[in-house]
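Render this sequence as a predicted structure.
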Amino acid sequence: MRRFVRQTVHEEIERIIPPETVVLLDDISRGIKRVAKHLEETTLEGIDVPLPEKTVASTKPEIIDVAHVPLRSVYFFNKGANTVYYRINNDPTENSLEDRESIKVERPRRTIVKITLRVNAGESATVKMNGQY
């Protein structure tokens, strides 16, 4: 009985909607599914990952490895007293974070696996951080 109903419905659809329209609607459906999957992968979930507060001294850069839980964004707050320079992953560009400044660094996907912090020679600063994936 169920098979007969399906077949009847299918025949009725073919009678009302031309086959080329059915093919077009099927293509549109697949496209919408791909877009939905992309949005699911790139939309921020907003789950916080607490990162340890770091005091950066001029003797060596601080490297924070977050490869165990790759992040989509990191919120930095420089508690002072000097400018901190940060680098995400192996990016050649180094960005500055002034005293008492906050900034949020975002990526479209969970690709942040390493954060490098440094200060100028003879200086130190404390940075508070919070990550999200």
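Summary. The domain at 48-132 is CATH 2.60.120.10 (Jelly Rolls). The mean pLDDT is 88.
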